[in-house]
Amino acid sequence: MNNIKILIALLVSTVIFTSQINGQVKYTAKGKSEFKLTGTSTMHDWEMTSSSATCDAVFTTDATGKLTGLTNMSFKTPAKMLKSGKGAMDKNAYKALKADSNPDISAVLTSATIKTIDSKNYTITSQVKLNIAGKSVNTTLVSNAKINADNTISISGEKKIAMTDYDMKPPSFMLGSVKTGNDVVLKYNVTLSK
């Protein structure tokens, strides 16, 4: 009977010790998050920016607070919150994004690895299902992560994608005389808090 009590005590101690070493901490985007689409056209380069995004992430940490893993992440921004400052361009972009039937651009994590740069900086290589214009594509994102003095985590990165991979038709303007390029760059900058 005493052996069973000792075994249970050891198991409980191991679970507590392991959870302290490999703690899971949930973070949420608070404050300003920025998401941009940039691209080219036959007339000039263009940029659309949204400061309305939601992001949740679950990191694992060791006993010193160092990031050791990313086990969960979801990101979402409304397509119609992307603004270029030019109404006609925005209207054509929303049409290409199929924003009426697919209102959100989103990403959901499938796996991730974290490489330590130093005690505050990391590189996160993640596999995500990136959903744009209603189509999900498995995508690799390489992000820079930094633990700030207030214990928030800043995540930033960019990814070049082709519109046609998402069954999007690159927008054209002025009766087709101005055409956008097929390739666009997604840029994101998010600050996460516990």
Structure description:
With 194 residues, this protein is of the alpha+beta class. The chain has one domain (24-193): Beta Barrel (Lipocalin), CATH 2.40.128. The protein contains two helices and eleven strands; from the N terminus they run H-E-E-E-E-E-H-E-E-E-E-E-E. The model is unreliable at 5-21 (pLDDT under 50).
List the helices and strands and how they pair.
Elements: H1 2-21, E1 23-29, E2 34-41, E3 46-50, E4 54-61, E5 67-78, H2 87-96, E6 104-116, E7 121-132, E8 135-147, E9 153-162, E10 172-173, E11 178-193
Antiparallel strand pairs: 1-4, 1-11, 2-3, 2-11, 4-5, 5-6, 6-7, 7-8, 8-9, 9-11, 10-11
Number of helices: 2
Strand content: over 45%
The parts where pLDDT drops under 50 for at least 5 residues are 5-21
Inertia-based shape: elongated
Alpha carbon gyration radius: 21 Å
Q: What name does the CATH topology carry?
A: Lipocalin
The run of helices and strands is HEEEEEHEEEEEE
Q: Care to count the β-strands? A: 11
**CATH architecture title:** Beta Barrel
Helix amount: 10-25%
Structural class given helices, strands, pairing? alpha+beta
Give me the side-by-side strand order of the main sheet: 1-4-5-6-7-8-9-11
CATH superfamily: Lipid/polyisoprenoid-binding, YceI-like
